[in-house]
Amino acid sequence: xTSFPYGLHCGDxxxxxxxxxxxxxxxxxxxPPYWQxxxxxxxxxxxxxxxxxxxxxxxxxxxxxxLQPSGDLWLILDDPFPVLDVLTDQGWSVVGMWxxxxxxxxxxxxxxxxxxxxxxxxxxxxxxxPDDPIISLAxxxxxxxxxxxxxxxxxxxxxxxxxxxxxxxGTTGVVAQRLRRPFIGIxxxxxxxxxxxxxxxxxxTL
Length: 206
Fold this sequence. Notes:
This protein is of the alpha/beta class. It contains 7 helices and 7 strands.
């Protein structure tokens, strides 16, 4: 595949990411599934936490290939430390880490990237956007758009592409659309992908 359309794609990011062209996007902002160890074959359902970390390592190796050499990664995860051990081996450098709700926000750059302005260390934002009617109806917990927007404005300018390989209910895509950033989102679960598609359509009417 020599080109890939921007937009939302329903499927396994482990299969879709390798098909994306290299160095085509500026930043990745994502909230991977938590590890729960259900053994159901999905990401987060691995039998051991070590296997879960290896799965994420494979995914973020392809994320790094898809990003431009100066591309940034914003990772929102409850326990990022075992994953970070693997990511630093891949060439990622941790710029900063801040608590938010029950998660950690981790800002990473590729080795050799130019330094960016400092990030405000205070991340006091609600778990859910209160004014999103689709999310309220679907009862989905999301990362708030204000958090995603801060990451996006720090790492990109208008016209630079954004990736979210765990698109969930589509918040990263909604913010990218609002800020005029091209967006590629991948979501494994069809129902979540439908919610994300509905939110993206609704955002176009605002």
